[in-house]
Amino acid sequence: MNTVTVYTTTRCPYCVMLKNFLVDQNIPFKEINVETKPEIMNQLVNETGQMGVPQTEVNGKWVVGFDPNNIMLALKTGRNEE
Fold first, then answer.
1. pTM, whole model, 2 decimals?
2. What is the pLDDT of residue 1?
């Protein structure tokens, strides 16, 4: 099964676009708002080296920004490894 976690902030238009894309594709995801959890933002920066959002973890792989193609690619490769 795929695990998708989207790291967002409250006023991020690309975060909204990304969440809408996932909903449209019927891809379940968990959202973590890093504005309300600054310690998680610190973990993200340590993990990916990126300050921006959205950042999406798909089956342990990171996709930075609004990047539907790489999200779909990560979902496909995740299924092949199961």
1. 0.90
2. 80
3-state secondary structure of 7: strand
Give the number of other Cβ atoms within 10 Å of residue 11's Cβ.
8
- Mind spelling out the 3-state secondary structure of 17-65? HHHHHHHHCCCCCEEEECCCCHHHHHHHHHHHCCCCCCEEEECCEEEEC
Tell me the domains of the chain and their CATH numbers: 4-80 (3.40.30.10)
β-pair type (55-58, 61-64): antiparallel
What values do phi and psi take at 49, rounded to 5?
A: 75, 10
Type and span of the H or E element at 74: helix 68-80
Query: What is the distance between the alpha carbons of residues 65 and 52, in angstroms, rounded to a whole number?
Result: 7
